[in-house]
Write a structure and sequence with these properties.
Length: 387
Amino acid sequence: MSEATGAAQAEEFEVEPIEVEARRWLDALEAQIGPLALYDTHTHFGRHDPDEFRQEPEQLIATMENAGARAITFPMHEPDGYPPANDEARAIEADSDGRIVHFCRVNPHDGALAEAVRCLDLGAHGIKLHPRAEQFAMSEAAVEDLTRLAQERGVPILIHAGRGIPALGRDTLELAQRYPGARFILAHAAVSDLAWLWRLMPANPNLFIDSSWWNPADFVALFSLVPPGQILWASDNPYGQPLHAAAFQLRYALMAGLDGDQIRAIAGGQIGRILADEEPLDLGPPPGPPGPLDPGMERVVSHLVSAIGRAMAEGDPSESVALGRLAVDLDGPEAESGRAILRLLDLADKHTGPPPPGRRFPRAAQFVMSAMAVARTPGIALPPENG
């Protein structure tokens, strides 16, 4: 896509419907814990990713301006190599009036060290690695070379940490222990390894997890079991939207028992310190497992998780959404949350249809995801019903 086309898209930029609704929920959260200075740890731009997601630089900047957020960005998958995309990332930072900073993305099988040195010399603030897309292991010598460079330069390494990457957590943990001055950020709630990794996080303070994810059970585990100083808020834009991610992810932090100062650090303060090569804040131990979950609301959660799974597989989520509606109890102790859930599902019905250009996730599913988050965090920071 040409620069002229990208500029035209920016001029036509429209706020996503979920971001309009999420603003209400974020306002309610801030009314309870105080204002948040959002710094998104994980965003993308690009046009060539095989998953068919697309985002122009102008769209990214406009999205973050609307959210009032700063952000880190890096290229999506570029099958033909990363140097041109890394140069574009640097241009995005220059054009963003300080709102966006960039990481370089490198492929350990394609001159990664030289490209990382080039980019860091030109002002990149960190390194992005994607072991699944580039088919490498974190135990490879090229990755250790990048780790040594990151430690020398005082910049973090952000790593895609989803499915399909054998030994990612173990190998990254070993690197973190051998290079205590390097800082590693495991993306996507570290779902590849969170089952065991949380126990070792306190002893490895140079290891961090970003929250660019969606599943409520994973969020409960993340915010309950990982030290808050090692969690970094992230939206994964354009796969997610920043206000939506902030409003609904940070509910889990509040439900887990974290206080306003801890949540402010997660939302942006800690990543700011990491980017400045400052000592990260020690925000205390994790709060531990939550108390009993509401069994009625867990029925809602279960059906809506099923709906999101169907939507991600490009199937029909309507039956699961209908079951989620039927599970809402408007006469029980969480009736106010129940009404909020139904309102979000009504908004989903108003936004049916194909995804917007450059996306694969339907707009309606974003509202279903929001309702799912409320069901798992009932009573937390509800906006006015008539707002």
